[in-house]
Design brief:
The structure is a single chain. This protein is mainly α. The protein has 20 helices and five strands. It folds into three domains: 177 residues, no CATH class; 86 residues; 90 residues, no CATH class.
């Protein structure tokens, strides 16, 4: 090296350390426990916008500090592109209040997969609950509201400096004020990734179809590629005798002898009832539980999954909701139920072993339906008796002692109308006069009962007789007071209360 080149070499700065060489290995494993997944307890800071938040998401995805399988035995194995796709949908929402159905529709994932990836974003410190959604039985589900967070490990790894502009504000409101020189290159790479959209990967069959078509075209000449999803009838263009879409094969005449051609549309599987997939064991349990909560009165409002677990044995044995209701009738009806699922668990204990054949279950159903018919007829008779009682001109008193006295008085009046009680057909005069004597015990008790009713404003006993008989038994004064109470009872200007 010459003497001129040596000074020049001395002033050349040393190459700046690449951002990929940042010592992320000294950082601890990235995991936020459930108690710290709320905004009030989070150690991170709120992202200023969705773009800067996606930089933190891509950093977590590439750092390898968060591994889901360290903390759970099920769900996704790594923080990968699918989680980033879910994060992209969250970055576009303001406020960040996504519903599970919305994310399922936008990403094409299942409901369980969306829940898994939301949980991973919370455990990585990228999301924090502001409001946790709820699901009330019989009502609409409330969506959760999240805050997009930047974990503190991201600031430490890239050398981001933060400042708290308001001393009275919470710690999660701090904002970035600068970045270290060593983290600028990595931040630029993360910015490039955040500006791109992660798309859903194509299936292997669709990606190989164009390559096969191109290879065939190179070998056979100009061949028009036809999609695997849509098959069209080849059409000849011009005077060419050969089709560019290939040779079309026609069915033999024996297949067309009946004049009916088979439709190219694939038929539905016979294993499906009405075009629907046949229910498995768990599906039958939930179907039976849903029907029970709809048809059994004391099971309304109960949790369907809990009822499915309680009725799992009878559901696996092939019982229907009618079989269960017939068995509950045999065990006995409950007048008051405090916990429906617990009562059902007790009543269904050993049911599948007692009614272990379809014949036994059919006999139980017949008994249950017969009891229902008897109960229905009994209700009809009660309604008829109540209607006749309330629609008649006279209502019997509620007191049993008064009813007996009224019956005795009516019997005496009828005997007087027919000439009195005939004993041995010999004498009738003295007994008739003695029955109407004021000192008679029955008449005296009847008058005393009428006086008790008049004291509280009741006229049932007096108005139960015809006017002439009532006047003869109770006298003019009691009849006047009864008529006065009747007028007051039917007047809109007065109200009678009983003590």
């Amino acid at each position: 090296m010459s003497a001129v080149a040596a000074p020049a070499a001395a002033v050349i700065p040393a190459p700046r350390a690449s951002a990929d060489d940042v010592a992320v290995f000294v950082l601890p494993a990235l995991y936020v426990p459930e108690a710290s997944q709320w905004l009030s307890t989070s150690a991170g800071r709120i992202a200023s916008d969705g773009y800067s938040w996606m930089q933190a998401v891509h950093w977590v995805a590439g750092s390898g500090l968060y591994k889901p399988r360290r903390h759970r035995s099920h769900g996704p194995r790594a923080f990968g592109p699918t989680t980033v796709r879910v994060a992209q949908e969250l970055a576009e929402l303001f406020p960040c209040r996504p519903g599970i159905e919305y994310l399922v529709r936008r990403t094409g994932l299942s409901e369980r997969s969306v829940e898994y990836h939301l949980g991973m974003l919370r455990e990585a410190g990228l999301l924090a609950w502001i409001v946790k959604g709820t699901r009330v039985s019989g009502g609409p589900a409330q969506a959760s509201e999240f805050a997009r967070m930047v974990p503190p490990e991201f600031d430490v790894a890239l050398g981001i400096r933060t400042v708290q502009r308001d001393e009275n504000a919470p710690a999660y409101t701090r904002a970035a004020s600068g970045i270290a020189e060593a983290g600028r290159e990595l931040m630029a790479k993360l910015a490039t990734k955040a500006s791109r959209k992660v798309r859903k990967p194509r299936s292997k069959t669709s990606s190989k179809a164009p390559a096969r078509g191109a290879q065939k075209g190179a070998e056979q000449g100009a061949v028009t590629a036809v999609s695997d999803e849509v098959r069209c009838t080849p059409m000849q263009v011009g005077t060419s005798a050969s089709s560019t879409a290939g040779t079309t094969s026609f069915p033999p005449e024996s297949k067309l002898a009946s004049g009916v051609s088979k439709s190219p549309t694939p038929k539905k599987s016979k294993a499906r009832a009405g075009g629907r997939r046949k229910l498995n064991t768990v599906g039958r349990r939930f179907q039976l539980a849903r029907e029970l909560t709809q048809e059994v009165d004391w099971l309304r409002g109960c949790s369907v999954p809990r009822i499915a677990w309680v009725a799992r044995n009878v559901a696996d044995a092939g019982w229907t909701v009618t079989d269960v209701r017939a068995w509950l009738h045999l065990r006995g009806e409950a007048a008051r139920v405090r916990r429906g699922s617990g009562l059902l668990a007790m009543l269904l204990t050993g049911a599948e072993t007692v009614l272990d054949t379809p014949e036994k279950r059919a006999d139980a159903i017949e008994q249950w339906r017969g009891a229902q018919e008897v109960a229905r007829r009994h209700r009809i008779q009660q309604v008829r008796a109540r209607t006749e009682r309330y629609e008649g001109d006279w209502q019997a008193p509620s007191s049993r002692s008064v009813q007996l006295e009224v019956e005795a008085a009516i019997a005496q009046v009828r005997e007087l109308e027919h000439g009195g009680r005939h004993q041995d057909h010999d004498h009738v005069g003295d007994s008739q006069h003695s029955a109407l004597e004021p000192g008679d015990e029955e008449i005296t008790a009847l008058i005393a009962a009428a006086d008790e009713e008049l004291r509280v404003g009741e006229t049932t006993l007096i108005t139960g007789f015809d006017p002439d008989t009532a006047l003869q038994i109770f006298g003019v004064e009691r009849m006047r007071r009864a008529a006065q109470f009747e007028r007051l009872a039917h007047s809109s200007l007065t109200t009678i209360r009983y003590r």
